[in-house]
Amino acid sequence: MSSAAPVRFPSPRPDQMLLPFAEREYVSVKRAASILGVSHRAVLDMYDAGLIEVIDYAFGKRKRVRYASLVDLCDRLRRQFGIEDRRPPLSAPYLRHRDADVLPFPISDTIYVKEACDVLGYSSLRSVYNMIDEGHFEAYQFTANSPWRISRSSLHAFVADAQRRASEHITRR
User: Fold this and answer.
1) Class assignment of domain 105-173?
2) CATH assignment of 21-84, given 1.10.10, 1.20.1250, 3.30.70, 1.20.1330?
3) Is the per-residue pLDDT at 9 higher than 90?
4) For 68-102, how does the pLDDT look when each residue is reduced to its tens digit (9 = 90+)?
5) pLDDT by residue (tens digit) across 110-137?
């Protein structure tokens, strides 16, 4: 009878080692930046400002962002700026939203103040800021110093409604 040689498994690389937390609860800083549509540095600035939770488990080399803190941040933005939650409901509490559904509105539906100024035919950015303050269309910003993000679809709905009202006003004359 021959004895089989013991099976040897290679030792795991450092990036394959078990992490000290459930992996599905955290995302990489790179993925968090992609979800939020910001830079890696902006994600770390949000952490420094206390807006999101980050774990640093490799002594400053590799950070992970708590996924629920990203969702909480975006939920606070929805409440603060009066944006309706259009995310499809999760079928189970352990599931995640699609990355595109985490923000108050998708990045693909986002324009910035300069573009909104062009759409509205204004020459002054201040006019768009005033319209945001008056709630004419959906918009949010992460912090007071970050750029406003405007929902393209809500801006177009506002323009279409304004054009409809103007044409009704003209026909009544």
Assistant:
1) mainly alpha
2) 1.10.10
3) no
4) 999 999 999 999 999 999 999 988 888 888 999 99
5) 999 999 999 999 999 999 999 999 999 9
- pLDDT for residue 2: 55
3-state secondary structure 90-109: CCCCCCCCCHHHHCCCCHHH
Q: Output the 3-class SS for the chain.
A: CCCCCCCCCCCCCHHHCCCCCCHHHEEEHHHHHHHHCCCHHHHHHHHHCCCCCEEECCCCCCEEEEHHHHHHHHHHHHHHHCCCCCCCCCCCCCCCCCHHHHCCCCHHHEEEHHHHHHHHCCCCHHHHHHHHHHCCCCEECCCCCCCCEEEHHHHHHHHHHHHHHHHHHHHHC
Task: Place 55 in a pLDDT band, splitting at 50, 70 and 90.
Answer: confident
